[in-house]
Design brief:
The protein is mostly helical and 233 residues long. Helix content is 76%, strand content 3%. α2 runs antiparallel to α7. It is found in: Cell membrane; Membrane.
Amino acid sequence: MLNTLLLINQEGTELPVDGESVEKTLSIIELISSGGAAGQIIIAILFLLLVGAIYIYFERIFAIKAASNVDANFMNQIKDHVSNGKIDSAQILCAQVNSPVSRLIGKGITRIGKPLADINTAIENAGRLEIYGLEKNVSVLATISGAAPMIGFLGTVIGMILAIFELANAGGSIEMDVLAGGLYTAMTTTVAGLIVGIVAYIAYNHLVVRTDKVVYQMEAHSLEFLDHLNEPT
């Protein structure tokens, strides 16, 4: 029985009685703390970038979701108001809905009576502003997706420099404990940088796809409005 019992040391590491091999585990916190000050600084920077990327993603996804919600009966009501000459009622409806599509249509309604080309130009200009608003801070995600791995690689270079420095000052005796700090810095920062970069890249591409859907929706409703204006009375 005694041969199978394990002794627990003060740090919680399991030690066998008969000198059997020890299975050592390392938590993420221990891994980061073992990387030294340089590694911890870079990990902290990457963590802030990750928090920023997640915040931008959810803030934009909720904004884009709200922008894509358009009543299916909205355009029918606009057409009825315009056909009946109730321009004021159409403008009030656009103001009540308050979405990118309604703002574009509202801009077109204010130009009714002018040439169709002028109405189309006004809608296009308003559309550019709406797209700019939808893409707010999305470029930051693209920057994070590219910068995070580079920051991680910077930590790798720093870690290797520290390891080589310790090797050069080891006095001819090479011990893994001497190299551990530099190697931990090199490996942990690389992994952290890649994780943050991958998360930001996926979030960026998802936002681009969702934004494109809203843009197509805006274009479709704008064309429908212009076609209605171009219909013979």
